Amino acid sequence: VVLVVDFGAQYAQLIARRVREARVYSEIVPSTMPVAEMLARNPKAIILSGGPSSVYEEGAPRLDRALFEAGVPVFGMCYGFQLMATTLGGTVDNTGAREYGRTPLHVSKSGSTLFEGTPAEQSVWMSHGDACSAAPEGFTVTASTDVVPVAAFENDEKKLYGVQYHPEVMHSTHGQQILEHFLYRGAGIEPSWTTGNVIDEQVAAIREQVGDKRAICGLSGGVDSAVAAALVQRAIGDQLTCVYVDHGLMRKGETEQVEKDFVAATGVQLKVVDAQERFLDALAGVTDPEEKRKIIGREFIRVFEQAQAEIIAEASGDQPVEFLVQGTLYPDVVESGGGTGTANIKSHHNVGGLPEDLEFKLIEPLRKLFKDEVRMVGQELGLPEEIVQRQPFPGPGLGIRIVGEVTKERLDLLREADAIAREELTAAGLDRDIWQCPVVLLADVRSVGVQGDGRTYGHPIVLRPVSSEDAMTADWTRMPYDVLARISTRITNEVKDVNRVVLDVTSKPPGTIEWE
Ligand code: XMP
């Protein structure tokens, strides 16, 4: 394992992902973890992340010098670089010389372990106030910027490396290469980690954990729960039952996809609960977005509980249902304080909540994986492309993509428009470029149109294509005009009561991705 020491501000997650992209397994540990504990995990290398602090601040995170003396290769980035510099006797000044954003880097020493084979001038992403003016003894300065004399250094003999900038960020043009140079050349690690290892490991562990007991899993139609279920199915077969609640707010073909494609690919036992009427009744007359969300969440829990109670009643006897499968991902684990598994919980998250008095043991086979890795696992498990490469879709479904009251007619109309947009985006090969493209019906808005020589008075449909890395921030996708034109023409021709298609050109912030 390569440990990524987290000094805050979300850089660590990105670094851990980049390390895994280099096919080396990595995990994040907090900077408060004692060095002895880090070393006890036998890391092949340690990376120190950036962070929001200044090394001069009172109470700024520190590191025990022992970390640098254990013979483990260390790579410091940004704050981690400055910490390495100060801890080992270099000089970091609060010069007031700030650098933020894209910065030209001058590589001063060819033949350096990190920079070999990369250009003498490259663009890097900086974000710092303090600057290193003298490297520690025994270190060679390998790069500088117009402002910072020591922007990178290395001590090849001791296997210690550092850069002032953020190589993990896309804007650092040779960042991944430099990270790989550290891992492969500096630390001598063979790139061998694959998601295939995860499947074998998890299948064995789940078999061992579950024995002859039973497990249930709520399917949402999303990637994570599908892959988690498929993995557990591979391990324990018919001892797993999946529950899928069809609330009628799904997109065209989605329920069928779960019912047919997913079952065909996995052979899983599936209980589909048709709860469309129940949801429509509960949503009747409601226009407030938050109220809609609450109603959908509440009804979902009720239906899920009921289905679960039925499964438990059917299964009771020699094989009690003892386990609940959840598609928790590594970022969820890290964000909620990380660390080792919670064994016995009353779960109210992800699946949508469970009865208070039901205790389950959790199976979370994806809790060490990032989203793109989950997709790879799904692919290796033979799940269909349409499930594995699905773009994010909100739990409340189309219910929050109709601005106004949700009715059966409006849902059908939106489903048609959405299906056309998705079809054209896929045909244009844009699925991977676009993070997601909500299609929104402005049900309470009408505008005048002319179609077939007659006047129309119909509703607008909004296209909201966005590009994003994690949905926290997003930009509107600059899509080819001809694709937009095809979508617009088809929607206004083929969808009844729609006579206008508009494009949402707002980034997030200020707009959220969804309209409600
Ligand atoms: P917003 O609209 O907040 O959306 O910018 C960010 C991302 O989250 C998705 N989203 C949801 N996902 N349950 C979900 O599972 C929800 O209630 C929900 N609301 C928004 C949204 O599609 C986008 O990817």
Automatic annotation (TrEMBL):
Residues at which ATP binds:
S220, G221, G222, V223, D224, S225, A226
* Top-level EC class as recorded in UniProt: ligase
Indicate the residues that form the catalytic site.
C78, H166, E168
Is Glycoprotein among this UniProt entry's keywords?
A: no
Q: Which Pfam families match?
A: GATase, GMP_synt_C, NAD_synthase
Give the record's GO CC terms.
cytosol
Q: Which reaction does it catalyse?
A: XMP + L-glutamine + ATP + H2O = GMP + L-glutamate + AMP + diphosphate + 2 H(+)
The reply to whether Oxidoreductase figures as a keyword in the UniProt entry is no
Keyword field: ATP-binding, Glutamine amidotransferase, GMP biosynthesis, Ligase, Nucleotide-binding, Purine biosynthesis
Q: Which InterPro entries match?
A: Class_I_gatase-like, GATASE, GMP_synth_C, GMP_synth_GATase, GMP_synthase, GMPS_ATP_PPase_dom, NAD/GMP_synthase, Rossmann-like_a/b/a_fold
In terms of CDD domains, this protein maps to:
GATase1_GMP_Synthase, GMP_synthase_C
Molecular function GO labels: ATP binding; GMP synthase activity
- Where is each GMPS ATP-PPase domain found? 193-390
User: What pathway does this protein act in?
Assistant: Purine metabolism; GMP biosynthesis; GMP from XMP (L-Gln route): step 1/1
Q: Identify the EC number(s).
A: 6.3.5.2
Which top-rank group of organisms is this from? Bacteria
Alphabetized NCBIfam families for the sequence: guaA_Cterm (TIGR00884), guaA_Nterm (TIGR00888), PRK00074.1 (NF000848)
Q: What is said about its interaction partners and assembly?
A: Homodimer.
Q: What does this protein do?
A: Catalyzes the synthesis of GMP from XMP.
Q: What is this protein called?
A: GMP synthase [glutamine-hydrolyzing]
